[in-house]
Amino acid sequence: MQLTVGNLAGLVRLTLGDPRLAARAVMAQPLPVQARWGALILTAVLSAFLMQAVTALLPPLPGPDGEAVTPIGPAIWAGMVASGMVMTVLLVHHVGRWRGGSGQLGDAVLLVAWLQFIQLLTVLLQIVVMLVLPFAAPLVEIGGVLLFLWLLVHFVAELHGFRSIGLVFLGVVVTFVAAVFTLSALLLMLGVGL
User: Fold this and answer.
1) Whole-model pTM?
2) Which residue ranges does UniProt annotate as crossing the membrane (predicted)?
């Protein structure tokens, strides 16, 4: 499937219905490595603007002194999202290869970018629900997290040629916990409070 604006909706439906087949379709896109990284950066920037929209819809959070907390700007959001995506790409690629997988780095970049695009659609849905049925917005948020995890596990399995979804799920959870622990320890050593 050649990815165009016209068949974007079809690929989204395929992703939700058969994520492994969708992962194959995404990886088959004839994009050079630079364009794959460009797609990742683009989704990070779009995510930042969507997060700004969500922040604008929510009441300001009070700080410790009672004053409203200044929202994070879009440039910082984009940097945070891009950093998280790059870390995800590296973990998906290197841990998968370490466990005997055959995935390529460029394919991991493209799959993480596509996964972030699906998350963008989830956030758009959350904004609509927030405006129409505010009490249901937390359910959409929880559903988005579960969808992210479900798609990530299937994408990793397809990327590396793993057959057991259960073992991939376990590997994703263990890798996430180890990454959070390592990052927290590193920040503490650098004197950055969490």
Assistant:
1) 0.86
2) 37-55, 75-96, 108-129, 135-153, 165-192
Residues 6-10: contacts with CB under 8 Å, at least 24 apart? none
Gap between the Cα atoms of 28 and 155, Å rounded: 13
Chain segment 99-111, per-residue pLDDT in tens = 999 999 999 999 9
Q: Which tens digits make up the pLDDT trace of 53-82?
A: 777 777 666 666 666 667 677 788 888 889
> Shortest CA distance to 18 belongs to which of 157, 189, 125, 176?
157
What crossing angle do the helices spanning 137-160 and 165-189 adopt, rounded to 10°? 110
The whole-angstrom separation of Cα 6 and Cα 192 is: 46
Question: What is the C-alpha to C-alpha distance for residues 175 and 144, in angstroms, rounded to an integer?
Answer: 20
What tokens appear for 178 in the block? 């180890």
Alpha helices in the chain (DSSP H): 8-17, 19-27, 33-57, 74-98, 105-132, 137-160, 165-189
